[in-house]
Write a structure and sequence with these properties.
Lipocalin; twelve-stranded antiparallel barrel; six-stranded mixed sheet; 1 helix; 20 strands; about 10% helix; globular
C-alpha cells in the first residue's frame, strides 16, 4: 500500500509540475530563431545577441599530386590528412558579427608528418550594403591569424637527400586576410561568393635536423582564395548545392631564397545540407580537384554541423 501511495503522490506531483510548466509556456512567447528557417534566406551575418557554432571535419587520402607544371603524377608516399575546424561567431549589432576559429591537423603530407593545432583566427564581418527586400547583400570580412601552431621546418635525410620531417601548421607571426562576401537570394535558390587576400608576414623559425637546427628568416607567400556557391532549397529541410573553389599561394622564401613551392588548386565541391531544426544543420560535401600545381590530387571528404543559440 505504501508503494501505491508513493507512486500516486509521484504521479500527481509530476502532473502538477507539467501543468504549471505548460501554463508558463503559454504565457511566455517562444524565443525567435537565431536565423531564418530556410538556408537560402539567411543573411551573411548572425543576428544580434545570437551565437553560431560551426564545426567541420575533413579527410584527404591520395597517392597522386599535381606537379610544378600542373600535370598529375604518383607521389613518393601517400598524402593522408585529417583536419578539424571549430568556429564560433557572435552577432554584436545588426550587420556586425565577430568570431574566432581554430583548426587541428593530423596526418602525413608525403614525407612530412605529425599533428598540431593551426593558427587561431579572429574575425569581424561587417555588412556594407543590403537591398530593400533584404535578399541581397555585400559584406566586408577582416580576419587575422595568431600563431598557435608549429611554424618550424624540421628536416630529415632519406635516400641521401633532405626532406621535410614535420607538417608546418603555422606562420611565424600574425597574418592579415581582408575579404569581400556577397549573397543574392531568389525564390528557390541562392548564389553566394567570396574573395580573400592573404597578407602573410615573415618571421624567424627553426630549420634543419633536430640536433643541428638553426634560426632562419621565413617569409610565407601571399595567398588568394575565391569561391562561388549555388544553393537550391529543394524542401524545408534539404538543400543541395555546389561550390567552385580556388586557392593559390606564392612561393615561400627562406633567407630571401625562393623555395619554389608556389601552388594553386581549383576544385568543385558538391554538397547537401539537412536542416534538422530551425537552428541546427548537418552538412556533407566532397572536394573534387579539377586542376592544380604543387597540390594533392584526391577527393576530400567533408562533414560539418552548424547550430545557433
Amino acid at each position: 500500500m505504501k508503494k501505491i501511495i508513493s507512486a500516486l503522490v509521484l504521479v500527481l506531483g509530476l502532473s502538477a509540475a507539467w501543468a504549471l510548466a505548460a501554463q508558463e509556456a503559454e504565457q511566455v512567447p517562444a524565443p525567435a530563431p537565431a536565423y531564418p528557417a530556410l538556408e537560402i534566406q539567411r543573411p551573411l551575418e548572425i543576428k544580434p545577441r545570437a551565437f553560431e557554432l560551426r564545426a567541420e571535419f575533413s579527410y584527404l587520402s591520395t597517392d597522386h599530386g599535381f606537379n610544378n607544371d600542373g600535370s598529375s603524377a604518383k607521389l613518393p608516399r601517400d598524402w593522408n590528412v585529417f583536419m578539424a575546424d571549430i568556429d564560433l561567431g557572435y552577432g554584436i549589432f545588426r550587420g556586425v558579427e565577430v568570431g574566432a576559429s581554430i583548426p587541428f591537423l593530423n596526418g602525413r603530407e608525403v614525407y612530412a608528418k605529425g599533428q598540431d593545432l593551426g593558427d587561431t583566427s579572429l574575425y569581424g564581418l561587417f555588412r556594407l550594403w543590403q537591398s530593400r527586400d533584404q535578399n541581397d547583400e555585400i559584406a566586408l570580412r577582416m580576419r587575422i591569424t595568431v600563431p598557435t601552431g608549429n611554424p618550424d621546418r624540421k628536416m630529415t635525410i632519406e635516400h641521401g637527400k633532405f626532406v621535410p620531417d614535420n607538417i608546418r601548421t603555422s606562420d611565424p607571426v600574425v597574418d592579415i586576410f581582408p575579404a569581400l562576401q556577397a549573397r543574392f537570394t531568389f525564390p528557390k535558390f541562392a548564389l553566394r561568393a567570396g574573395a580573400e587576400y592573404g597578407y602573410r608576414i615573415g618571421g624567424n623559425i627553426q630549420y634543419g635536423i633536430d640536433a643541428l637546427d638553426s634560426t632562419v628568416r621565413f617569409d610565407p607567400g601571399a595567398s588568394f582564395a575565391a569561391n562561388f556557391d549555388f544553393l537550391y532549397q529543394a524542401s524545408d529541410r534539404w538543400v543541395p548545392g555546389v561550390s567552385l573553389a580556388y586557392f593559390t599561394q606564392e612561393s615561400n622564401r627562406q633567407q630571401k631564397h625562393s623555395l619554389d613551392d608556389a601552388n594553386y588548386l581549383l576544385s568543385v565541391n558538391p554538397m547537401v545540407e539537412f536542416q534538422a531544426a530551425k537552428d541546427y544543420d548537418l552538412i556533407a560535401a566532397f572536394g573534387i580537384p579539377l586542376a592544380g600545381k604543387n597540390s594533392p590530387n584526391g577527393i576530400t571528404y567533408i562533414v560539418g554541423l552548424k547550430t545557433r543559440f
